[in-house]
Write a structure and sequence with these properties.
Number of strands: 4
Shape: globular
Distance between the termini: 36 Å
Structural class: mainly alpha
Order of helices and strands: HHHEEHHEHEHHHH
Helix content: 40-55%
Number of helices: 10
Length: about 230
């Protein structure tokens, strides 16, 4: 973890300090977390290369556009990075709609719908984990537009790298259904969905441990299988 004095100015507030102190006491576990991320992501990338190839062929045969989708997201300390995903929507979908996905979104391709159901579109984020932009378990990364709407307390989620999965992701795995009937999906997400998700994320910061990370990964597998 960075020294408190080296955090971005907007993060150095009393609300964030509480969570910073909680995590600072667990800094040894956080070092182990990074080693775990590095080793497991490298092993999974090597082992899943044939799966990557099959999915790439499926995407290219299904619709025009690149295999991968890269979007700017925010990770630890407010740093921007580009997240890797298999493309599940028509090319340039972010130019013709909201930045959140709703149930029945016409921009989702046939193969994309299948990949989303079993979360295989997230596999390329293994590269983000290997590079250190992300971690296996942590707050899901938001786009800059939504991070600008964080209140002082929510900024505490930026003390750690963004995650591929979390207890919050499991709880809100069908959030597109929650937004399906909204006239303004962005507004509903910012004012209702995001604050509720952040309460879960902040509680996870308080409870952080390596063993809880492993349990969350196991619960994620179970949720996907269901």
């Amino acid at each position: 973890m960075r020294a408190w004095e080296k955090l971005p100015p907007k993060m150095r507030n009393p609300e964030v300090r509480y969570y910073y102190d909680v995590l600072y006491k667990k800094r040894r576990q956080l070092r182990i977390k990074r080693i775990f991320d590095l080793c497991l992501s490298a092993a999974m990338i090597a082992g899943l290369l044939p799966v990557f190839l099959v999915i790439a062929v499926m995407i290219k045969r299904d619709s025009k556009g690149p295999v991968f989708y890269r979007q700017v997201r925010i990770t630890a300390y407010g740093r921007k990075f580009k997240i890797f995903k298999f493309r599940t929507m028509v090319d340039h979908a972010d130019r013709v709609g909201t930045q959140v996905t709703v149930q029945g979104d016409a921009r989702i391709t046939k193969v994309g719908n299948l990949l989303r159901k079993v979360r295989l579109d997230e596999l390329p984020q293994l590269f983000n984990v290997f590079l250190g932009d992300m971690t296996f378990v942590g707050t899901r990364p938001e786009v800059p537009k939504y991070v600008k709407c964080y209140d002082r307390k929510m900024l505490a989620t930026l003390l750690l790298p963004a995650g591929i999965t979390s207890r919050t992701s499991i709880e809100y795995k069908d959030e597109d259904r929650l937004l399906a009937d909204a006239e303004d999906a962005d507004k509903v997400y910012i004012e209702q969905v995001m604050p509720a998700k952040m309460e879960y994320n902040l509680k996870e910061l308080e409870k952080y441990s390596i063993f809880r990370d492993l349990a969350t990964m196991a619960l994620t597998v179970i949720a996907v299988l269901k």
